[in-house]
Amino acid sequence: MNVDFLPLNGTDYVELYVGNAKQSALYYQYAFGYELIAYSGPETGIRDRASYVLKQGKIRLILTSPMQPEGPIADHIRLHGDGVKVLALWVDDAEKSWKETTTRGAVSVEAPKTLSDQFGSVKVASIKTYGDTIHTFVERKDYSGVFLPGFMPKKSSYTPTPIGLQYIDHCVGNVDLGEMNKWVAFYENVMGFKLLITFDDKDISTEYSALMSKVVSNGNGYVKFPINEPAEGKKKSQIEEYLDFYKGPGVQHMAIATDDIIHTVGELRKRGVEFLEVPSSYYEDLLDRVGKIDEDLQPLKDLNILVDRDEEGYLLQIFTKPIQDRPTLFFEIIQRKGAKSFGKGNFKALFEAIEREQELRGNL
């Protein structure tokens, strides 16, 4: 029996460094239905940054902007544009998590420390992963405040309508050519994850471009990280485009789970969120490919939602276009009806959709 030396309760939060956190926070509230719950900045005694905490279901996003043009947050944004800095993991013991991973070769970013205020204390510690991305272990069993010490509760005068986003299903990292196996080994050896699934360039390719992908998962399956690298193709793949514009490895997309994808995507489209488009021919033989599904085909076709089946059931999924001007970070909306996989049957249609966008940008 393998003992899980890094038990995880799930994703604690995802922090994005962005050029203008105040404006980004309103975008996520309006477009995605997140609720503003907390804030940290000059008014709370933090001088170098402003951070807004948004929540929907079990998802917490932090949007952080620097107060000055120098310093690590400003440097990160100047190099990468808006992007994910921290994939925080909720643990019962932050110090043990840090020790277990650093003794196995993780590079420490911050040794365990305790943050306290009148609501109790939280222990945190951080390690590096691919690119400039970090994992922060968060132990919050002795805390009753709104988010973390140093944050005050904050509400917006705008009342967003939630759209059914529930939790982060998986977070995908793009790494340099030839680096995928190194990072898969990092998650296996340093963090005790298991290799769940492998896709090679025969699975994920078009006439022009290809990628390789491996999915790692922690012991209880709460945290899943697909890792992508480019593969040889006639033209530039979406992974290379990302690496060119993000200036290195980073989080490519977050997949967010919903129980009613038709409602969720209908709301997102109404609020101006743009999605990749697959041609209507995709739906002509869809039921032959995936078999019987509970949903009517017409709303799926109208909203351009994709369907794929594995041995355990099926899933419905759709991908936004990049949510900033650089063609880097985007979101996936996913509804699982038993399926544990990642939509392999849709890869070709999606890749072609991304290539059409790349061509418009002059980056194919």
Helix/strand-derived category reads alpha+beta
Shape: globular
Work out the helicity level: 10-25%
What is the mean pLDDT?
94
CATH superfamily (homologous) name of the largest domain: 2,3-Dihydroxybiphenyl 1,2-Dioxygenase, domain 1
Order of helices and strands: EHEEEHEHEEEEEHEEEHEHHHEEEH
| Count of the separate structural domains | 2
Count the strands? 17
> Tell me about the biggest sheet?
9 strands, mixed
Distance between the termini: 48 Å
Please explain how this structure is put together.
With 364 residues, this protein is an alpha+beta fold. It has 2 domains: 10-153, 2,3-Dihydroxybiphenyl 1,2-Dioxygenase, domain 1, CATH 3.10.180.10; 165-361, 2,3-Dihydroxybiphenyl 1,2-Dioxygenase, domain 1. Helices cover 24% and strands 35% of the residues. The protein has helices at 21-32, 72-80, 94-103, 180-189, 238-246, 261-270, 286-290, 297-303, 347-361, and strands spanning 10-17, 35-40, 49-56, 59-66, 83-90, 108-117, 120-128, 134-139, 152-153, 165-174, 194-199, 210-217, 224-231, 250-258, 306-310, 313-319, 330-337. The strands form 2 sheets. A 9-stranded mixed sheet has the order 6-7-8-5-1-4-3-2-9. An 8-stranded mixed sheet has the order 11-12-13-10-14-17-16-15. The mean pLDDT is 94.
What layout of secondary structure does this protein have?
Blueprint (H helix, E strand, L loop, with lengths): L9 E8 L3 H12 L2 E6 L8 E8 L2 E8 L5 H9 L2 E8 L3 H10 L4 E10 L2 E9 L5 E6 L12 E2 L11 E10 L5 H10 L4 E6 L10 E8 L6 E8 L6 H9 L3 E9 L2 H10 L15 H5 L6 H7 L2 E5 L2 E7 L10 E8 L9 H15 L3
